């Protein structure tokens, strides 16, 4: 480990330690979800049952188990308290930042510490890293999966593709089918815009699919066998019906995610907006040539990754707080700016600002969550 | 960001930012300082130092929220102080019921006290002695749920507009 790497690691540990872990128990569990999820994990731990989530002894099948499993481990180590309940999200956020750093160091050297610190410093990241909820586990797993996929796309190393499948599976265990669905949509659009359908065929790698099934499926099968109502409760009611209908009267206007997005990006909002605007301008002016080089492909990928969840969950039937929470909310989306094609020479030439998008669950969960 | 963090206790307490002269002044000064620092750094040193400078308000903001706003957040938005209030009267597990308390308080009490909470509105009135958490100004409605039962107010949780009662067990009818 050279001096630069050591400094980077120390800086990241200090930042993540303070922003995500410091003062986790400074205030009690907030909203209806935090204490409910924590209680479910406590009951699972008391029964030593890793399959069926229960609340006050009754099956509670609204969410998959990743958060509960992490909270059970945390309760085992730190005892049952609100600090331990929030530990899983903080850990997942730190893991996500570590992967951002490692990815950038390997594939975009020179920007790794910038990207990791900016990703860690967004209001949305900090907020959700400190919440006992399923949002950060999903966001972290999904973000790592997408980074792993792009690492495979650039390097063709199968280990990255295997990591993609494993982390998509973990995302499925964090929040359900939304993780593989969104990953599929993003890759489909990317392949379509690149006009290279072989990307999709190569992504559909049998060992990877088996890995996905091995990681994600055992719990789904086990919980269905023990609780025959699981499919109706979780898949039909808490995914499809909640997505398509305003079951819980959480309807929001179509532009709801725009201010949420901008707030969650604070204090990096201006940079992110500039990066997106520049990329959209290039697409508009240069068409498919805007994404001809490797660097341009990366930016195209980021742009799709940024926009797909926002547009998808802004669809007319699903602007409710369910979607707000269930989309890969604080998923990492980086836009480099200034780009190679329009770099302003007055700016530091070595700088590559990495603009993460973290939609503002922190804002909405704290301020809008129905009591 | 720092301005927002410093204003957080007031926002939590009043559900809005108190726009008085001091707030305008502080907001204006904070904006001028922020844009000034950004401008100077951009023109003299480039974006790298601006990034480091931006991390400062993030750290200060998080620190300010944790140190200054968290007691207010805890007192007004979490069930933890309610649970601590109940435990200050009895360390033993007693049945808990709520009346016109919100879901945050109900689920929070379930976690902090580790047992179920009954809801008077749903007809779940425990027959044994229990602690009742009721919204302030609902005392007059309680007698309808608790005929011939002694109700004593233990304390109040003013930050959440709640009263805490001890409800005696249902008297045993003698033939």
Please give a structural write-up.
The complex is a heterodimer of chains A (371) and B (175). With 371 residues, chain A is mostly helical. Chain A has one domain. Chain A has 17 helices and 4 strands. In chain A, strands 1-2 form a two-stranded antiparallel sheet. In chain A, helix 2 packs across helix 3. With 175 residues, chain B is an alpha/beta fold. Chain B has 2 domains: 76 residues, no CATH class; 88 residues. Chain B has 6 helices and 5 strands. In chain B, helix 2 runs antiparallel to helix 3. Chains A and B meet through helix 1, helix 2 and helix 5 of A and helix 3 and helix 5 of B.
The chain pair with the largest interface is: A-B, 37 and 34 residues
Indicate the low-confidence ranges of chain B by residue numbers: none
| C-alpha Rg of chain B (nearest Å) | 24 Å
Task: Quickly count the domains of chain A.
Answer: 1
Find the count of extended strands of chain A (DSSP E, 2+ residues): 4
Q: Write down the Rg of chain A.
A: 20 Å
Helix content of chain A: 55-70%
The whole-number mean of residue pLDDT values of chain B reads: 82
Residue-averaged pLDDT of chain A: 81
Strand content of chain B: 5-15%
Counting helices, strands and paired strands, the structural category of chain B is alpha/beta
Strand count, sense and barrel status of the largest sheet of chain A are: 2 strands, antiparallel
In terms of quaternary structure, what is this? heterodimer
The number of helical runs of chain A is: 17
Relevant terms:
heterodimer; A: about 375 residues; mainly alpha; about 0% strand; globular; B: about 180 residues; alpha/beta; 6 helices; 5 strands; elongated
In short:
Chain A is mainly α.
How is the topology of this model organized?
The complex is a heterodimer of chains A (371) and B (175).
Chain A: H1 3-21, H2 33-47, E1 54-55, E2 58-59, H3 66-78, H4 82-107, H5 112-121, H6 123-129, H7 135-155, H8 158-175, H9 178-194, H10 198-203, H11 206-226, H12 230-244, H13 257-264, H14 269-286, H15 294-313, H16 321-326, E3 336-337, E4 353-354, H17 361-367
Helix pairs in contact in A: 1-4, 1-5, 2-3, 3-4, 4-5, 4-6, 4-7, 7-8, 8-9, 8-11, 9-15
Chain B: H1 2-14, H2 21-44, H3 47-77, H4 80-89, E1 96-99, H5 103-113, E2 117-119, E3 130-135, H6 139-145, E4 151-157, E5 162-167
Parallel strand pairs in B: 1-2, 1-3
Antiparallel strand pairs in B: 3-5, 4-5
Helix pairs in contact in B: 1-3, 2-3, 4-5
């Amino acid at each position: 480990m050279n001096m630069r790497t050591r400094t980077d690691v120390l800086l990241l540990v200090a930042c993540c330690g303070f922003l995500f872990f410091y003062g986790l128990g400074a205030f009690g569990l907030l909203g209806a979800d935090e204490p409910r999820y924590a209680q479910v994990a406590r009951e699972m731990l008391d029964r030593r049952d890793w399959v069926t989530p229960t609340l006050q002894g009754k099956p509670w099948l609204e969410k998959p188990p990743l958060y509960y499993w992490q909270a059970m481990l945390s309760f085992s180590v730190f005892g049952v308290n609100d600090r331990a309940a929030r530990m899983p999200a903080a850990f997942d956020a730190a893991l996500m930042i570590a992967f951002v750093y490692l990815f950038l160091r390997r594939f975009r050297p020179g920007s790794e510490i910038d990207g990791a610190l900016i990703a860690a410093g967004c209001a949305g990241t900090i907020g959700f890293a400190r919440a006992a909820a399923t949002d950060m586990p999903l966001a972290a797993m999904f973000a790592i999966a997408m980074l792993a996929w792009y690492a495979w796309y650039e390097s063709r190393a199968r280990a990255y593709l295997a990591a993609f499948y494993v982390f998509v599976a973990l995302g499925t265990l964090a929040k359900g089918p939304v993780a593989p669905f969104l990953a599929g949509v993003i890759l489909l659009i990317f392949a379509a815009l690149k006009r290279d359908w072989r990307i999709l065929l190569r992504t559909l790698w049998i060992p990877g699919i088996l890995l996905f099934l091995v990681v994600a499926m055992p719990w789904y099968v086990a919980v269905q066998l023990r609780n025959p109502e699981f499919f109706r409760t979780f898949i039909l009611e808490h995914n499809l019906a909640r997505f398509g209908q305003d079951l819980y009267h959480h309807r929001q206007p179509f532009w709801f995610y725009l201010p949420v997005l901008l707030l969650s990006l604070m204090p990096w909002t201006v940079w992110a907006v500039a990066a997106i605007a520049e990329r959209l301008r290039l697409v508009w002016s240069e068409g498919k040539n805007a994404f001809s080089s490797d660097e341009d492909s990366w930016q195209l990928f980021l742009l799709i990754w940024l926009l797909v969840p926002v547009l998808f969950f802004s669809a007319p039937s699903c602007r409710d707080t369910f979607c707000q929470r269930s989309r890969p909310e604080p998923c990492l989306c980086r836009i480099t700016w200034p780009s190679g094609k329009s770099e302003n020479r007055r700016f530091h030439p070595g700088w590559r600002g990495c603009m993460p998008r973290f939609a503002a669950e922190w804002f909405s969960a704290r301020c809008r969550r129905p009591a | 960001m720092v301005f927002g963090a410093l204003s957080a206790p007031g926002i939590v307490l009043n559900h809005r930012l108190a726009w008085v002269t001091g707030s305008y002044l502080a907001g204006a000064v904070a904006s001028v300082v922020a844009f000034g620092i950004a401008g100077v750094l951009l023109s003299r040193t480039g974006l790298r130092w601006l990034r480091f400078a931006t991390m400062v308000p993030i750290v200060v903001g998080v620190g300010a929220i944790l140190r200054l706003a968290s007691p207010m957040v805890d007192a007004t938005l979490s069930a933890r102080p309610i649970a601590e209030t109940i435990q200050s009267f009895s360390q033993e597990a007693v049945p808990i019921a709520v009346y016109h308390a919100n879901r945050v308080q109900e689920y929070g009490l379930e976690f902090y006290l580790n047992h179920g909470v009954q809801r008077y509105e749903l007809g779940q009135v425990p027959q044994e002695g229990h602690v009742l958490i009721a919204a302030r100004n609902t005392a007059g409605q309680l007698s309808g749920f608790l005929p011939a039962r002694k109700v004593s107010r233990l304390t109040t949780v003013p930050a959440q507009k709640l009263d805490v009662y001890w409800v005696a067990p249902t008297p045993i009818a003698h033939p």
